[in-house]
Amino acid sequence: MQTEFKRKLPQEVLALLPLTLFFPVGLMYLGLLCFSIAFVVSEEFKHKWENIRQHAMFFPALGLSLVCVFSTLLNPPADKEYWVQFLHYQTYWFLLPMIAIDAGAWQTRAVRNFFIGALIAATLFFLANYGLLPENTLFRSYVIYQGNKSILLGLLLALAAAWMLHELVIHRNHKMARVLAFLYVLAALILCSKSRTASLLFFLLLMVFLCRNFRFKFWQIGAVMALFACGCASLYVAANAPAPVTCLAKEMHDRYQMNGLEIFKNRSICTIQQVRDFGQQGSVSEDGMRLEIYKNTWHLIEQRPWTGHGVGQWMPLYKEEARGKMSENMTTPHNEYLLYWCELGILGVLALILIWGRQLFEAFQMAKKKSPYAMPLCMLTVSMMFAGAFNAILRDALFGLAMMIMLAIPLANNRESRA
């Protein structure tokens, strides 16, 4: 009995980890510490190593690390911060112990706990929207916009809503409860989360979900064309709409008392108009600095496109490139593809794309075998690829570790076909 308990202990901890993502980051780190302890206590290291070695994600993760080592040989460390920056590229190694754990009922519990966390988060967002939530350490990310943590909460809500939609289709039980939970989380995402990236991500995942049965029928093609026309019309209207009073989410909420839907609408208009203005005049605002960051980072890439500038070199080089500009003090290019290309060269960005491409390939392989985790893996990978274009989704541990925890759920099932 004791041996069985020790063997299943990592599974029990893994099943709880998705719930920790909706609370202060310290709780996630505590959960990962508990998993590490459970991993050691449960022993069976030879079996776990075989699971890792045979897993589809082992060699892509190893490949990225080798690219980092190769980059180090070409670009020797310039300062003592090098190893800290080097570790930022090793996020996928945190996934490997999780996928060493055998697939089982814990995956279902993990998904359920993820949904419970999303429902709690949705409730907290609604309470914060009506001023009923105290601004303390536990709830601060729900009450005020706190950058990466607030963005992560929005991304998790978008992913949860998409996964709920998938579960609604594949499961016949508790239909009404599933529909209500989906609508509740979706409403919180759109009305309260204040994240443009997260709201757009949900609609992208909705397209992925709808395309699972795309057969190029006339009505399907017509629907796609209609959506495209609506999108173009929306862009035209937004580009020519009156400029919002401010483009800063915090100011919209604190000074102008806008609700989540108004903030999403105004920030969307701001984004489109900022792209227009940057293209015409090269001007940027405080909220639209990313366009300037992308342009300056691309200039750095053009200097050394093949070998890159070396691990951890983006920040000091960017300060020189952007000296005197609004974005001079930025600590990240807010784009994972540009960061990898700038620091690791062409091999770095290819290694990143290969990792995400491998995840998509595994999702398609699982879909052929009618695995219920195929669509969740596809949605999660698309989320990472999309969010990586606007945020440091792997370089920042807040995002990266959260993504590894979520990846462990569908990827553990992958091993059944490799046993």
From TrEMBL:
Entry GO MF terms: ligase activity
Record membrane topology: Multi-pass membrane protein
Keyword 4Fe-4S included in the entry's annotation: no
Organism domain of life: Bacteria
Cellular compartment(s): Membrane
Major location (coarse): membrane
Transmembrane segments: 20-42, 54-74, 86-106, 113-131, 151-169, 221-239, 338-361, 373-391
GO terms under cellular component: membrane
Domain O-antigen ligase-related as annotated: residue spans: 183-353
Key word Transmembrane helix present: yes
Pfam families attached to this UniProt entry: Wzy_C
InterPro entries per UniProt: O-antigen_ligase-rel_domated (IPR007016), WaaL-like (IPR051533)
Record key words, sorted: Ligase, Membrane, Transmembrane, Transmembrane helix
Protein name (record): O-antigen ligase family protein
Organism from which the protein derives: Undibacterium nitidum
